[in-house]
Design brief:
Blueprint: H1 2-27, H2 31-54, H3 69-93, H4 100-128
Helix pairs in contact: 1-2, 1-4, 2-3, 2-4
Length: 129
C-alpha cells in the first residue's frame, strides 16, 4: 500500500504543481482556467485512483468490475457531480468553465494514474523478486 501511495502522491503533486505554476503558459490559458484545471485534474486523479485501490497487487484493476454494480454507480455519480460542480463553480468561486479540450486534458491526467499504478506494480515485481 505504501508503494502505491508514494507513487500516486508523487505523480499527482508533480503534475498538479506544474499546472498550478506554469499551466497558463504551457496550455496557453489564463490563470483562472489553470486553477480549474488543477482542481478538476485533482478530483479526476482521485476518481481514477479508486480503480487502483480495488486491487492493490493486481496489474489488471478492471478484472471483475462488471460484477460490482455499486462501485460503478458511485464512480458515475462522482463524475456527474464533478461535471456539474465545475460548470457552476465559476459563479461562486470566480474561476473559469472548462471547454471540451480542457476536460480531455483533465481526463488524460486522471487516467495517467492507471499507467503510474501499473508501472509501479511492474517495477515492484523486479525489486521484490
Amino acid at each position: 500500500m505504501w508503494r502505491n501511495i508514494i507513487a500516486q502522491a508523487s505523480y499527482q503533486v508533480g503534475i498538479l504543481v506544474s499546472i498550478q505554476c506554469n499551466g497558463a503558459a504551457i496550455l496557453g490559458t489564463n490563470l483562472e482556467v489553470a486553477k480549474s484545471l488543477v482542481f478538476n485534474s485533482y478530483v479526476l486523479c482521485q476518481v481514477f485512483n479508486l480503480f487502483n485501490c480495488r486491487k492493490l497487487e493486481k496489474k489488471n484493476v478492471f478484472k471483475g468490475i462488471h460484477r460490482n454494480c455499486w462501485f460503478c454507480v458511485a464512480v458515475g455519480a462522482i463524475l456527474v457531480f464533478q461535471a456539474v460542480f465545475i460548470e457552476i463553480e465559476h459563479i461562486v468561486g470566480g474561476s473559469e468553465r472548462l471547454n471540451g479540450g480542457q476536460w480531455g486534458i483533465c481526463f488524460l491526467i486522471g487516467m495517467a494514474s492507471w499507467v503510474i499504478d501499473w508501472a509501479t506494480k511492474w517495477a515492484s515485481g523486479f525489486i521484490t523478486d
